[in-house]
Each structure stands twice: as C-alpha cells, then as structure tokens.
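Lay summary. Proteins are chains of building blocks that fold into shapes, and those shapes determine what they do. In this project we predict the shape from the chain. Here is one chain we studied, written as its sequence of building blocks.
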Amino acid sequence: MFNNLATSNARSLSESVLLKRAIVVFDGGNRTLKWLDIDNRPRIIPAFIKQFEPGFDDPTPDDHSVVISAGDNHFCLGAVARDMRGTPVFQDNKCELAKKLVLAAIEPHPGSSAVVVQRLVIALPNSRNQADIAELKKVEGTHQFTRNGQRITAVVHEVKPIDETQAAYNFAMKRDLYRSKRQLNGVLDLGGGTGIGRLYSVGGSLIREADAILPGTYDLARRISARITPQLTNSPDLSQIMDGIERQDFTLGTSGFQFQKQFEICREQWLSDIRAELRSRWNQWMSEIGEVLVIGGSASLAEPLEEATKGRFKVARHSQIDRFPQLISLLGMTAG
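And here is the predicted shape, written in a compact code that computers can read:
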C-alpha cells in the first residue's frame, strides 16, 4: 500500500513538473515577434497577423509561422500571415493584441497537451502605463486553444511587464558589455516602427526623463520611398523596402529594382536625425555618459554611428550568438 502511494505521489510530482514552465518570455516588436521555445531556442517570425476562415483559408504552420484557433477566433502569425496580406502588428495596439500574440510562445513540453506558466515576461515601451498593463494582465488565467494543430490547455499565473531596453541593459551589465560601470550607460533600441533611447544611472535605475522616442526603419523606408517613387509605376510597399534592407540586397520585392544608392543617402540622414534628437534629449547628461549599446533588429544599420562616435555608441555583438542585437533582450528577460 505504502509503495503504491509513494509511486502515485512520485508520478503526480513528475507530471506536475512536466506541466510547469517557470518562465516564458515574449517580445512583440514592430517587425518581428520573438520568444524562446520549449528547448530554449530563439524563435523569430514576422510581426503580421491574419484572421482566417477555416475551410476557406487553411494556412499551414512552418518555421516562421504559427496558426492559432481559440473558440471562434482563428488567426495566423508570421510569414504565412504576411503572405496572405495580413496586418502588420504595429498598425494596431500591441498590448490589446497581446492575448493573441503570446499564444505563439505558449507551448507545453513534448508529449503533453497542458502547460502551467508560472511567469510570462512581456516587453512593452512603458511598464508604468496602466492601460497597457491592464491589457497585458488579461493574459493571466486559463486558455484553451489549438496551436499548430495541437490542442492546448494553458494556465498563466503571472504576467510580468518589463520596460523595453531594461532586459538588454541588465544582460549587458552582468556580462560586462559596458567598459565602465562607474558612469551612466545607455541603450538605443532600433526597431521597425520606432526606436527608443534610454539612459540608466550608475546604480542601474532607468532615467525616465531621458527617454527618447526615435524614428525606426519604417521612417527610413518612407524616406527611400520618396526618392524612388518617381522611377516606379506605383508607390512601393514600405515592407518590401524594409525586407530588402534586412536581406542587404536592397532589391524591391521581385521587381529587380535596386535602391542601394538611395538607401545610403537616406540612412545617413536618418542616423543624423537620430543623433541630433539624442544630443538634444540627453544634453544635460552628455558629459556623464559612458557608452550606449545599440540593439534591435536594425542595430547593424547604426554601424556608421558607431564609427562616427568612436565607439561611444556601439552595436551589441557576441562571438557565439547569431543575431545577438536582436536577441539580447530575450536573453535578459529569462533572468528577469
């Protein structure tokens, strides 16, 4: 009897452990949705969402797409949503969309159809915005949905919002990515829709007065569009310009039209405007700033800024982690 009871208790404990995920991290950017999967591998998919009607539209999940059904709500995320002419998430309120977007990141351990998430960490521009936090808190609770054909029951105990750049700053400080910890240091996150520049005190506190909202690659694409439109029959799709920049082939879709020359001109102006805005916003702290770490999916575009400032602004790099500027926030969120 005692052996049977012990075996039963051990089985229940084992099943409980298998159900639990101590932490799930999700970063819903303007260009990409990012999370760490069940094996702690980074997943990055295009930030598009598309509602669909089963039996009429039948999107198929792949490495860059997730297909979700929750009750009468059916939608796909990622590359397939983009290809089906879905909506870029930056055109909606991402916090209001959070209850849908985060389902991409919530998956159980292999062999299980249920998962208990102890803490779901979500990045957002301002963790003190009570309206946004209220939307994110709606993710807490029980969810029943189908993810990529698998029926899942998920319980989310706690949603923890974290300010964008905070996780990257914490990771950088722990890994000694800043040369000095005795000065103010900053993070410049260059994303698709917008960028954000932030400074942190010597003690690690966010100096909110120094927050600077900056133009992202959407603005860069808009500038390029203005220059190339007279040479085209129709106005170009800005997302195709951004895709060409990301691929570094500077080609507009499948048209074969090259825009590298216009890109070089516009990038110089774009970075100049970013630098001017930061110089104005950070003027009172300028003499105290050590380094500013440049992160985000568009960080590599700031290499001329790194050169111009002699490394005071520096693109985040890691010899063993591919796409490190894009992933540093996720890595920092796991420790948050």
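What the prediction tells us: Residues 260-281 form the longest helix (22 residues).
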